[in-house]
Structures are given as C-alpha cells and as structure tokens.
C-alpha cells in the first residue's frame, strides 16, 4: 500500500515559533504531500490563526480559490 496525502495540502508555518519551526513543519509534511502542496510562513508565534487571523484567512482563501 502506497502511503501519502492524495489531496491538496496547505501548511501555514509560524515564522517566530521556536519549538516547531517553519522549516520543521515543512520537512514533516512535504514528503507525504503530493501535487498541490503549498507552504507559506506568517510572522507569528505558535498560534498562527490567533496571532494573524487576517493573514491566515487570506492564505486559506487563496488556497481554496485555487482548488479545482
């Protein structure tokens, strides 16, 4: 059985998260994601969606608008 994520995936990395760095978030997800992988970084700590709700919503909207 082949493992992996077969749907579009977006990861929003946290640019100022010292425990789960943006690079680590990308490294953990990219190998499993196929076509349609998108990785973005916002200048936040760990709670990206609370610290930058507008930026998170903008990226989510762009991602969803790009789906078939």
From TrEMBL:
SUPFAM superfamilies: alpha/beta-Hydrolases. This is Alpha/beta hydrolase. It comes from Colletotrichum higginsianum (strain IMI 349063). The lineage of its organism: Eukaryota, Fungi, Dikarya, Ascomycota, Pezizomycotina.
